[in-house]
Amino acid sequence: MLFPQHFLLAIDRADRYSRNMSPKTESIIRDILQLPKDVRALIAERVLESLDYEEPFELSEEWQEALARRCQEIDSGDVQLIPGEQVISEASARLKK
Question: Total structural domains in the chain?
Answer without folding.
Answer: 2
